[in-house]
Design a protein that fits this description.
CATH architecture of the largest domain: 3-Layer(bba) Sandwich
Number of helices: 12
Largest sheet: 7 strands, mixed
Number of domains: 2
Oligomer: single chain
Number of strands: 18
CATH topology of the largest domain: FAD/NAD(P)-binding domain
Structural class: alpha/beta
Strand content: 15-25%
Helix content: 25-40%
Order of helices and strands: HHHEHEEEHHEEEEHEEEHEEHEEEEEHHH
CATH class of the largest domain: Alpha Beta
């Protein structure tokens, strides 16, 4: 009996290895390891592999905004590289598990579309889900959230990057940045990899404007930030599919107070704090832990000092900026130690995001997209959600690709050209919806 079990296991391993090799992977058989084991060439190398990339656009951060920025730049013909310190794209939607990106609609009509919406709808369709009816104004804002399968989303985001010609580099992050005659030299590091990127434009989508900080440009931040969330599921398996259908359910959340995404030390502290809290709840409730996200979801960090700032009055009044490149929609949504009480926008109000809020003040050839947009804290609490960040990301990708093509800087690209490129990729231009 034991001999049969060993034979079955050996046959299974060999079958699995052959299947993986057929998919393009090189894997050595585990049979007779003591005889066949020899160091491969990569193991003999003492130093990290040095790589140089010469690209038009470098996107740092493959989260909500960065993924869309990279796809837009790639589809516009810009040679694009995206760096992501984690193992997958998607950020808040995937790694943090907030798999209900919103909001794409306001007051009975869609106000954000484009590449982000394409990714979301493709994910819902592949998962046999349904979409909300945007023509119906919900009583509560969250009722029009689009639920997606976070695992499918990561796969589709990667596929769309590849189809757009975007090169993806996981587990890497910039270590030094310097100006060149044509743009930037960015020296990056990952385990076993040293990468030098020569680029014309940088889009900082790190969430906390970390590249902007490395360049010594000013950033804004409050002493106390909103808590992060560690998402998990007890007792029943996580069902990521069937978006917007009864029973699909959402993950549970535990606040991680003091969560700070500024550096590896504070992210480590936030993750360990969240995991301890989940473990304590498992012991207290005496239920099985069926799902746990790998990282805390962070709501707030640094914001840039931009060429203009979006104030809470601009946001709540639906100000249409002269250089608006994307829409936004969400309540003012500050989380505190006692929870959150969203302040809905007044009927008809649709905030907009100006190009100048994505550009660090007095800078050239660098933009941001996502929650580090130049805004005050209250405005940022609404701007930080995924759909709005997707719109910003697409706008930044369009502006950066045009700037690279014309050997100029994003602020000097004619706004009409940016709008035209965005419209050609199905984005909704503020004031034209």
């Amino acid at each position: 009996m034991k001999e049969n079990q060993r034979t079955d296991r050996r046959d299974f391993l060999q079958h699995s290895i052959l299947g993986a090799a057929g998919a393009g992977l090189t894997i050595a058989s585990t049979t007779n390891v003591s005889i066949a084991a020899e160091p491969v060439e990569s193991q003999k190398q003492a130093a990290a592999v040095e790589i140089t990339n010469d690209v038009d656009v470098l996107v740092v951060g493959g989260g909500t905004a960065g993924t869309i920025a990279a796809i837009q730049a790639g589809r516009a013909g810009a040679k694009t590289l995206i760096l992501e310190r984690n193992s997958q794209l998607g950020g808040t939607t995937t790694t943090a598990g907030v798999s209900f990106p919103g909001l794409f609609d306001a007051w009975g009509k869609q106000i954000i579309a484009g590449i982000g919406w394409e990714l979301v709808t493709d994910c819902v369709e592949l998962d046999s889900g349904t979409l909300p009816n945007f023509a119906k104004v919900p009583q509560r804002h969250w009722q029009n959230q689009v639920r997606v399968n976070q695992f499918l989303y990561a796969l589709l985001a990667e596929e769309k990057c590849e189809q757009a010609g975007v090169q993806v580099a996981y587990y890497e992050f910039p270590q030094a940045i310097s100006k060149t005659a044509t743009g930037w030299q960015v020296d990056c590091v990952g385990f076993g990899t040293q990468r030098r990127v020569l680029c014309k434009q940088i889009i900082d989508c790190t969430g906390g404007a970390e590249v902007v900080g490395m360049l010594g440009l000013p950033r804004l931040r409050e002493e106390e930030t909103q808590p992060g969330s560690m998402l998990f599921k007890l007792d029943q398996p996580n069902n990521p599919g069937r978006p917007n259908r009864a029973g699909s359910g959402l993950l549970d959340a535990i606040y991680v107070h003091g969560a700070d995404s500024s550096n590896s030390r504070t992210v480590t502290a936030a993750n360990m704090t969240g995991r301890r809290a989940v473990l304590n709840k498992v012991r207290k409730d005496k239920k099985r832990l069926m799902h746990l996200q790998p990282e805390t979801g962070f709501r707030e960090s640094y914001r840039i000092v931009g060429e203009t700032m979006i104030s809470v009055n601009d946001y709540t009044s639906g100000r249409l900026f002269d250089d608006a490149v994307s829409n936004a929609f969400y309540p003012v949504d500050i989380h505190t130690k006692t929870g959150v009480k969203p302040k809905p926008l007044k009927p008809g109000m649709v905030p907009t995001v100006p190009l100048r809020a994505l550009i660090p003040k007095s800078s050239r050839n660098i933009m941001v997209a996502g929650r580090s947009v130049c805004s005050d804290r209250l405005a940022n609490s609404g701007l930080r959600v995924q759909a709005s960040c997707m719109g910003m990301g697409q706008a930044a990708g369009a502006a950066a690709s045009l700037a690279a093509k014309n050997d100029t800087t994003p602020l000097e690209v004619p706004l009409a050209d940016i709008h035209k490129l965005l419209e050609s990729h199905d984005a909704i231009i503020p004031g034209k919806a």
